[in-house]
User: Which sequence fits this backbone?
């Protein structure tokens, strides 16, 4: 990776950090200046104190939520890859199934959750299914877009060299689709956290979502914000993990971006001046 791209990445982390720090300071100052009651809006310092004081309880519920997030996200990836590949490579499957995939997003999850509890019982299965249902759609769309963006002329050229369908799929289609797939994974990762939280509202006796539901009814607002902070940290961590895997898996993709940045920033070096004969 080039020095310039590394500088851009470093700047991309520092700037949001300063913005977040400024927001937290302003939040703390506003709560103290206007004497806002903690059950309405607790200060960041109070949230940190609650995180430390109630860490055993929060950690236990965090573990339950992480299990649901992980299983639901993996199930969403599996469903999305199967559906996306079939939709992208089969016109019949695309015409018959793709509209149903889109229609599935018009059904409120709150309405589906009780039905899943009736079908599968009061256990982890409905929560995993709800998480996967919320997270799979953007990844499926990106998988379809990625595989359908493969240049047909490139496929014909590789086939003319004697490549089989499997070789074309592995050597051409997958590398072309991978940037789209990782883009979908980033969106689905954050939705998996939301899905797990929503699923624990519907039917769970453990998890941060259930803890938020109970604490909200009892006006334990400080611990509600502590749980929200942990859920946000889960989403950010999962997102960053996918970005790291993407950078390790697609170094050529980021090297191409770095070349494009250098050409835009230093257009004078992109073209060598013509030499004139004296």
Assistant:
């Amino acid at each position: 990776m080039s020095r310039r791209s590394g500088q851009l990445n470093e700047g991309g982390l520092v700037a949001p950090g300063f913005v977040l720090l400024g927001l937290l300071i302003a939040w703390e100052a506003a709560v103290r200046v206007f004497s806002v009651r903690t059950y309405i809006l607790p200060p960041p310092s109070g949230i940190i104190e609650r995180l430390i004081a109630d860490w055993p309880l929060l950690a236990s519920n965090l573990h339950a939520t992480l299990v649901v997030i992980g299983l639901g996200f993996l199930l969403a990836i599996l469903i999305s890859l199967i559906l996306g590949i079939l939709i992208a490579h089969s016109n019949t499957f695309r015409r018959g199934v793709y509209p149903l995939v889109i229609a599935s997003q018009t059904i409120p999850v709150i309405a589906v959750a009780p039905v899943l509890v009736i079908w599968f019982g009061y256990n982890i299965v409905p929560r995993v299914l709800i998480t996967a249902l919320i997270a799979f759609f953007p990844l499926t769309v990106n998988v379809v877009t990625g595989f359908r963006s493969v240049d047909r002329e490139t496929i014909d050229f590789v086939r003319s060299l004697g490549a089989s369908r499997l070789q074309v799929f592995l050597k051409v289609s997958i590398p072309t689709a991978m940037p789209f797939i990782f883009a979908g994974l980033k969106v689905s990762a954050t939705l998996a956290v939301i899905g797990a939280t929503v699923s624990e509202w519907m039917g769970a006796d453990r998890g941060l979502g259930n803890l938020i539901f109970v604490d909200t009814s009892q006006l334990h607002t400080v611990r509600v914000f502590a749980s929200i902070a942990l859920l946000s940290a889960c989403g950010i961590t999962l997102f960053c993990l996918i970005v790291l895997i993407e950078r390790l898996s697609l170094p050529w993709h980021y090297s191409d971006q770095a070349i494009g940045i250098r050409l835009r920033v230093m257009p004078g070096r992109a073209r060598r001046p013509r030499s004139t004969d004296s």
Residues 49-254 form a domain with the MetI-like fold fold (CATH 1.10.3720.10). Residues 1-8, 268-273 have pLDDT under 50 and may be disordered. The chain has twelve helices and no strands.
